[in-house]
Design a protein that fits this description.
Elements: H1 2-38, E1 44-45, E2 52-53, H2 63-71, H3 80-92, H4 95-99, H5 124-133, H6 158-169
Antiparallel strand pairs: 1-2
Bound molecules: heme C (HEC).
Length: 179
């Protein structure tokens, strides 16, 4: 009687372990899909000291900006219309004055890579954070509401910044979406 109980238990245990592995896998996939569709914002950090960077969700006001907000990937990479607009915005926001007409560097560093003052700028999320909130070494924040504290409407929207980054990447070999 006792023997039977033990082996029955063993079988139940094995069966539940096998079941566990299976349900674990599918739950993992489910979680991922849920996160992608939940529209939850990824965590942004400042380039100054890596502290949390809060950006209002409503500023991500285009489908592309929303995609970036939830994935950290820039959907405008390689998009010729966006790149052309990014070039104009780079001039409009005076980036050219410090970084040169082709982002090749002037007073400010070359932006086309592959080497950066801040290694994270090799990724689009990293470069976005650097431009949005500025650096400790000579570049002020350019994000909406941060560029001119007396005028909250001043500064780049996330969508504009993604287009600028797409233009910057069009000069280099990496897309910035790799990692
Ligand atoms: C007043 C001059 C000035 C202007 C205008 C300016 N920058 Fe900068 N930028 C700098 C300097 C100086 C640095 C180097 C800062 C540092 O190392 O901390 C820099 C750094 C950067 C970096 C980081 C580069 C790296 O090597 O990691 C990026 C990206 C960048 N700027 C993009 C932009 C964009 C986009 C604009 C326009 C919206 C802009 N900058 C406008 C001066 C400027």
């Amino acid at each position: 009687m006792r023997k039977i109980t033990l082996s029955t238990l063993g079988i139940i245990l094995l069966a539940s372990l096998a079941g566990c592995g299976k349900s674990g896998d599918s739950a993992g996939g489910g979680d991922k899909a849920a996160a992608a569709s939940s529209g939850e914002m990824i965590k942004f950090v400042t380039t100054q000291d890596g502290s949390p960077l809060t950006i209002k969700a409503e500023l991500f006001d285009t489908a592309e900006a929303k995609e970036f907000m939830t994935t950290g990937k820039n959907p405008y990479i390689g998009n010729q219309d966006a790149i052309a607009k990014g070039k104009k915005l780079f001039q409009l926001y005076s980036c050219t004055q410090c970084h040169g007409a082709d982002a090749q560097g002037q007073v400010g560093p070359n932006l086309t890579g592959p080497n950066y003052n801040y290694a994270k700028d090799a990724t689009n999320k990293g470069m976005f954070e650097t431009v949005w909130h500025g650096t400790n070494g000579g570049m002020g924040a350019k994000g909406k509401g941060l560029m001119d504290p007396t005028d909250p409407s001043n500064g780049l929207s996330p969508d504009e910044l993604l287009k600028i980054i797409a233009w910057i990447r069009s000069h280099g070999t990496a897309t910035g979406n790799e990692s």
